[in-house]
Design brief:
This protein has 2 domains: about 20-260, SGNH hydrolase (Rossmann fold, 3-Layer(aba) Sandwich), CATH 3.40.50.1110; about 280-323. The protein is about 45% helix and about 15% strand. It contains 10 helices and 10 strands. It has helices spanning about 25-40, 55-65, 95-115, 155-175, 195-215, 225-230, 245-260, 265-280, 290-305, 310-320, and strands at about 20-25, 40-45, 75-80, 80-85, 120-125, 130, 140, 150-155, 180-185, 220. The protein has a 5-stranded parallel beta sheet with strand order 2-1-5-9-10, with helices on both faces. Strands 7-6-8 form a 3-stranded antiparallel beta sheet.
């Protein structure tokens, strides 16, 4: 016995292949969300860009649910690019008009999806927040502006729980079927020191545990513990020694699918992997009889998925290889 393997408790409810899944939060949400996308699940992933702290995560969703207009005070221009303190730098534009259009599109997509989704996955990254001294609000992202413009502090458990309680009441009023999965991102935020990161993650873990105990439709997935206590080795990190590498992500993904996917969805993924491998195949001689036969056989296999998922993109890619 050379490690303490973490085997999550079976989920009370399971994700089906046709379910909608909304993912929001830290870059760890991107990892899981992109894998779900690759495996043809119907997802909406971080419509406002990566968001690290729970306050901003919940605010973004509540505002999209209620159709809240963009707060003009948070919009600023820097070097010809418009950004907003409530969103990631990925949400940017070359003019105010373009930014408003971008925001409206993201907000509408978020609100509509939330009202109809079966699943909401929230990945909380840090309890540390920054308040802009002029904007006088907690920001989602500092956009690499000078530190003197911000005050740093730690969110309290009470603030997070109160914010979630309010959000939970609102989302349940418009979507009774929704199930929520909370996770604490294993990505470490050590710019504010390792000690602060430990304090921050401890608060998030306490909040996630409190909320999953409090609400029947809220569950906790232990991705943080998998990285810290199960894998527990720097060989599972990227070169920056902060972010999980592909091996770690694949390991946690496997645990996630084992925990949350129903039997049919797991079987689908197993079958779909063969299609992905076939599409990733790089032939030495694309025009050879053997490869052309391989493409035709793959198209035939692909069409067997047609009643369940949209195969349009994959079909076009393969058909373009036919001579």
């Amino acid at each position: 016995m050379f490690r303490t393997e973490l085997i999550p408790r079976p989920a009370k409810e399971k994700i089906r292949i046709g379910d909608k899944i909304y993912l929001i939060g830290s870059c760890f949400a991107d990892h899981i969300g992109n894998l779900l996308k690759v495996h043809k699940f119907n997802t909406l992933l971080n419509p406002f860009g990566v968001i690290y702290n729970p306050y901003s995560i919940l605010k973004a969703m509540v505002d999209s649910l209620t159709g809240q207009e963009l707060d003009e005070k948070g919009l600023f221009e820097n070097q010809g690019i418009y950004r907003h303190f409530d969103f990631h730098s990925d949400i940017s534009a070359g003019s105010k008009e373009e930014f408003y259009s971008l925001f409206k599109s993201a907000s509408t997509a978020s609100g509509d999806f939330l009202k109809n989704t079966e699943w909401l996955i929230i990945s909380m990254g840090t309890s540390i927040v920054y308040e802009h001294r002029t904007y006088q609000k907690i920001v989602s992202n500092c956009h690499k502006l000078p530190g003197r413009q911000f005050d740093q502090r730690m969110l309290t458990p009470e603030e997070m729980i109160t914010s979630f309680d309010s959000f939970y009441k609102q989302i349940r009023e418009v979507n009774e079927k929704i199930s929520i999965i909370l996770t604490v991102s294993p990505v470490r935020h050590i710019k504010s020191t390792i000690e602060k990161n430990s304090q921050s993650k401890a608060i998030l873990r306490y909040v996630a545990g409190t909320l999953s105990d409090k609400f029947d439709k809220v569950q906790y997935f232990p991705s943080f513990e998998m990285m810290m206590d199960d894998l527990r080795d720097y060989r599972f990190y990227r070169a920056d020694m902060i972010h999980p590498n592909e091996v770690a992500i694949d390991y946690i993904w496997k645990k996630f699918t084992d925990t949350y996917l129903d039997g049919e969805a797991k079987d689908f993924i197993h079958e779909w992997v063969h299609i992905l491998k076939a599409m990733d195949h790089k032939p030495f001689y694309p025009g050879s009889v053997a490869h052309q036969r391989f493409i035709k056989e793959t198209i035939k296999k692909l069409r067997t998925f047609e009643p369940r998922i949209d195969i349009g993109e994959e079909l076009v890619t393969l058909e373009n290889q036919l001579l």
